TrEMBL record:
Residues 151-216 form the HTH luxR-type domain. Transmembrane segments: none annotated. It comes from Streptomyces koelreuteriae. The keyword Phosphoprotein applies. The modification 4-aspartylphosphate is found at residue 55. It holds the Pfam family Response_reg. This is Response regulator transcription factor. It comes from the Bacteria.
Length: 223
């Protein structure tokens, strides 16, 4: 079955460009468009898309609040949000990730990256472009704790290896890179990541990365 995509951007020309790119793919179907966050909420309820391609800065309701309502506990469907941001890393993207976005993509990314990003998010993955995610979190380090705050009690539920994995996830490493760093298999890494998400009550790798920074486990800018 085709992946159902909802396009949300206040610029019609951009939506048209995205539609042309996505409709050229047999496994993707653009089921609707919205010009602001409020329209996006209505369209999500009516169309039940699998992935919402979400702009950040829009009138009436921005992409952060729309993402929060689409992915929150009272959500109407399983839609995942892929946030669109500008080349210089929009200051609101961190908030969008906290709100529940499954990842983000630069607006000027090549067409093949856009298509692949949608497929990855639809498959339940997250943390797109890990190196960019790390740069984003480091760039906006002032929004995150200094690392001097008390460690949350939930962090103590993790094993030493799970803490290692969480740190590497937060620093932008893929499963393959983590496996190479720890000299284990990718399957083992996936298992550890799954345990981390379950124990900390997190939805995906994006939330895990943000948690690691917010808890002080990883300091912004640390190697």
């Amino acid at each position: 079955m085709a992946i159902r995509v909802l396009l949300v951007d206040d610029q019609p020309l951009l939506r048209t460009g995205f539609r042309m790119i996505l409709e050229a793919e047999q496994d993707l179907a653009v089921v609707g468009e919205a010009g602001d966050g409020l329209q996006a909420l209505d369209q999500v309820r009516a169309l039940q898309p699998d992935v919402v391609l979400m702009d950040i800065r829009m009138p009436r309701m921005d992409g952060v609040e729309a993402t929060r309502q689409i992915t929150g506990p009272e959500r109407d469907g399983p839609a995942k949000v892929l946030v669109l941001t500008t080349f210089d890393l929009d200051e609101y993207v961190v908030e969008a990730l906290r709100a529940g976005a499954s990842g983000f993509l630069l607006k000027d990314a090549p067409a093949n990256e856009l298509v692949q990003a949608i497929r990855v998010v639809a498959a339940g993955e997250a943390m797109l472009a890990p190196s960019i995610t790390r740069r984003l979190l480091d760039k906006y380090a002032t929004h995150l704790p200094s690392g001097d705050e008390p460690v949350p009690d939930t962090l103590h539920t993790l094993t030493d290896r799970e803490v290692e994995v969480l740190k590497l996830v937060a620093r932008g490493l893929s499963n393959a890179e983590i496996a190479a760093d720890l000299f284990v298999s990718e399957t083992t890494v996936k298992t550890h990541v799954g345990h981390v998400l379950t124990k900390l009550g997190l939805r995906d790798r994006v939330q895990a990365a943000v948690y690691a920074y917010e808890s002080g486990l990883v300091r912004p800018g640390a190697q």
